[in-house]
Each structure stands twice: as C-alpha cells, then as structure tokens.
C-alpha cells in the first residue's frame, strides 16, 4: 500500500505467516515515498549501506502483503493452513451474530456522532471502519478473560455486554465511565494514550501469579487483551509493556488496530516497517491480520488467546484496517487525507464484506435483515432518549472518585472550590449562592 492507501507495484508478495512468530513484509526495498521525502531518504544508497542500519521493509508500515485473510474484500472465503481450524466450528448463526454486532456498533457510532453535533455530547471518538477487528477479536474472548481498551473500542464493549449508553456517559462528561469492569471483563476507557498497555500487562502478570494460566481448565485459564492504535506504539508506555510482557511471559495479547492515522499523523511518519515487526525485537511473536476481515480477526485472536491461556506468553497482533471517520468529532480528516483514499477503503467496508459472504451462502434471509434494521432503529432511539435524560453533572463532582480512599489534598481543593462558587451572586435571587 502507498501512503495514499492505494495499491502499489511491488515484487511478488511473500506467503502468509505460518506461525505467529513470522512477520511478513518482504525483502529490503525502497518504501513508497511520502510527500515530504522522508521515505525516499530512508532508501537512499548511503542510508541503506550505513553500518548498523537495517534495510527498510518493502512497503513500509502500510505493506499489505502476507496479511492473514479468510474473507476477501469481495466476500469470498479463502483457505488458510493455520487459521482455518479456528473458524471451522462457526455456523451461519454465528456469522449472522457477528454481522449483527457490527451493524449495531456502526449505528452506535452514527447516533453518537449526531448527538455530539447536536451539543448533547462534549466529544466522541468513532470506530467507523474498525468494526470487524473489534467484533471478531471480541468474540474470541472467554468470559474469564479481561480487556483493557483505549477509547474507541465500542464494538468490543458491545460484545462484552456493556450497555453502550454507559459509554456515552464518559463522552457527555457525566462520569469517568459507567460500567463495572469486573462484571464485564472490560476495563474503563483509557484516554491517556498507551498507558493501559502497562495496566493490561500488570494485570496479566497478576493472573499468572494467581495460578490462572496453564492449568488445562478451559473455564479457569485466563488471558488479557490490551487494545491500542498505531499511534500508541510511539509512546514509551507501550515499549515498557512489551518489555514486561516478554520477560515475564505474561498471558497478554497486545492488539494494535493500525487504522493508519494517529490523529492527523500518518503511520508512515511513525514507522519505516510494519508495526508488528517491532514485537520480535522484544522477544514477542507477532502476526498481521486483515483488520477488515471479521473471520480472520476472530481466528488470529483466538489463536493468540489460546497461547496466552496455556502459559506460552504474549502475542502482538496488528490488525491492519482504516479509520473511515474522524479521529474524534473535533477533527477534520479532509485536511490531511484525500477523498480518493477514503473511497478506496470504503470499497473495503468490513460490514459489506461479511454481508456479501452471507448473501452468497444464502444465509442472510430478508426476515433477518428487516428484523435487524428494526432493532437498529430502536437502538438509535434508545441512545437518544438515554443521553438526553442524563442531565448535567455538578461542577463539584470532579472531586469524586479521584482516589479510592479520602485524600486530604482533594478535600482541601473541594472546600476551596465550594467557597469560590458561593462567592458569585445568584442572578435569579440577587444574593450570594
């Protein structure tokens, strides 16, 4: 793939990886030049021959050769020698359930974006275009597994049974996240980029020390997943998490959704090789998967989780996908990417891919489609009603739940704030509040 997202001419693509440890990308070759010439500079003879400098990987971080894929963009089922076994048990009912999850997740995105535009939410981070990576990987989890999300894992939250109106409490500013992480095996959203990769690794080390790994009991052995984007891999916290995960053989899956944009910064400005190629340097096996393929995302994650639960340590998964929407509702992607690139990826829509596959199998009856549309409409109405009923939190609520136990500094700040607020005249009564 070029930095514009369009296919580029290259040498013959290498075969798909036969194990999680294999990192595709091809032999050394010049990466596709970027608009500022950085990629071209990386491939110059002087640079390539410099001592201690590894040659650039063909295609750089946008290389799409060797991605694990079970459904092509046209919905055709293709075989994979390693990962077919992980989807062999899935029935048409299972595929329709995945389709439903993706449709409802997208409806959630659409409604939440509209609510933000109407002033009902302060901000919203879309997952538009990333539904397959999230739903596929989320459905591979077992009840005892635990997830550490960033802030756009709405599809995973839905699969884990989180009431999505609770997610919107965060974006409305009502609270810091309104669900029980233990009940759902799904931690609260993390807004500090990359920090939760360390939380997930630490939690996985705790699971390991509690004897919940490698027992052979399918209902006991536990894995942990951390979801983050390509931009987060530029943060030191993620690097530290990789170190701790590797040396402790922690039962954690580090799941990177490479949607090609860290806010407005393209992946080509953050890496000269595929993102997943970083993991083996830490001693962690890695695999790249077509993140717009829900079956492949399911299979690759299931294999990584299985490996973690039996005590074989961490796996790095890079789901190569595309952020079809904005980074958040405060962002304007038209300022930094082309409409041609967006259209290229729109033709690879993950929901359309699964729908086409189901239709070709005769497994998507009109009654199901009509019922799902009615369910999505009712879901949209529920979201609108629930958000508008949330009201607005008092300013003093910012001092609540800062620490688990009373804290003198917080209480002093609360007292000062209450005194400050009471110093203002109440316009309605002409007196101090």
TrEMBL record:
Biased composition (Basic and acidic residues): 329-348
Alphabetized InterPro entries for the sequence: Alpha-ketoacid_DH_E1_comp (IPR050771), DH_E1 (IPR001017), PdhA/BkdA (IPR017596), THDP-binding (IPR029061)
Cofactor(s) demanded: thiamine diphosphate
Domain Dehydrogenase E1 component: 100-375
Xref: NCBIfam families: PDH_E1_alph_x (TIGR03181)
Gene behind the chain: pdhA
Single GO MF descriptor: oxidoreductase activity, acting on the aldehyde or oxo group of donors, disulfide as acceptor
Assigned keywords, A-Z: Oxidoreductase, Pyruvate, Thiamine pyrophosphate
Signal peptide: none
Organism lineage: Bacteria, Bacillati, Actinomycetota, Actinomycetes, Micrococcales
Region (Disordered): 1-53, 328-348
Superkingdom assignment: Bacteria
The keyword Cell membrane is annotated on this UniProt entry: no
Biased composition (Low complexity): 1-51
PANTHER family xref list: 2-OXOISOVALERATE DEHYDROGENASE SUBUNIT ALPHA, MITOCHONDRIAL
Classification via Gene3D superfamilies: 3.40.50.970
Keyword Oxidoreductase belongs to the record: yes
GO biological process: branched-chain amino acid catabolic process
Name assigned to this protein: Pyruvate dehydrogenase E1 component subunit alpha
């Amino acid at each position: 793939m070029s930095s514009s997202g369009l296919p580029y001419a290259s040498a013959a693509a290498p075969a798909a990886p036969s194990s999680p440890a294999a990192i595709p990308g091809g032999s050394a070759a010049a990466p596709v030049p970027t608009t500022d010439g950085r990629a071209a500079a990386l491939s110059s003879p002087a640079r390539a021959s410099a001592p201690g400098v590894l040659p650039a990987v063909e295609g750089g971080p946008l290389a799409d050769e060797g991605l694990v894929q079970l459904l092509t963009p046209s919905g055709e089922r293709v075989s994979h020698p390693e990962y077919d076994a992980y989807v062999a048990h899935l029935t048409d009912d299972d595929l329709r359930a995945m389709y439903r999850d993706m449709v409802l997740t997208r409806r959630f995105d659409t409604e939440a974006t509209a609510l933000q535009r109407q002033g009902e939410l302060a901000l919203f981070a879309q997952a538009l275009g990333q539904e397959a990576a999230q739903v596929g990987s989320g459905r591979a989890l077992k009840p005892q597994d635990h997830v550490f999300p960033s802030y756009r894992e709405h599809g995973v939250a839905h699969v884990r049974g989180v009431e999505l109106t609770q997610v919107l409490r965060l974006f409305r500013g009502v609270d810091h996240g309104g669900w029980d992480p233990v009940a759902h095996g799904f931690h609260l959203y993390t807004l500090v980029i990359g920090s939760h990769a360390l939380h997930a690794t630490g939690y996985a080390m705790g699971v390991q020390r509690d004897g919940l790994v490698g027992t052979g009991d399918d209902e006991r052995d536990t894995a942990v997943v951390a979801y983050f984007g390509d931009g987060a891999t530029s943060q030191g916290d993620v690097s530290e998490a990789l170190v701790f995960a590797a040396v402790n053989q922690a039962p954690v899956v580090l799941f990177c959704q490479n949607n090609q944009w860290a806010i407005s910064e393209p992946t080509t400005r953050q890496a000269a090789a595929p993102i997943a190629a970083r993991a083996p340097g830490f001693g962690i096996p890695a695999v790249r998967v077509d993140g717009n393929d829900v079956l492949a995302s399911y299979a690759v994650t299931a294999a990584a989780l299985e490996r973690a639960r039996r005590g074989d340590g961490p796996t790095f998964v890079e789901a190569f996908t595309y952020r079809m929407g904005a980074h958040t509702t405060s962002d304007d992607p038209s300022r930094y990417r082309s409409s041609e690139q967006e259209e290229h990826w729109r033709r690879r829509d993950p929901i359309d891919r699964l729908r086409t596959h189901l239709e070709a199998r005769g497994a998507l009856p009109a009654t199901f489609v009509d019922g799902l549309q009615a369910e999505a409409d009712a879901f949209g109405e529920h979201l609108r009603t629930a958000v508008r009923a949330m009201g607005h939190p008092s300013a003093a609520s910012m001092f609540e739940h800062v620490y688990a136990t009373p804290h003198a500094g917080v209480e002093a700040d609360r007292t000062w704030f209450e005194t400050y607020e009471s110093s203002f005249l109440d316009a309605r009564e002409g007196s101090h509040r």
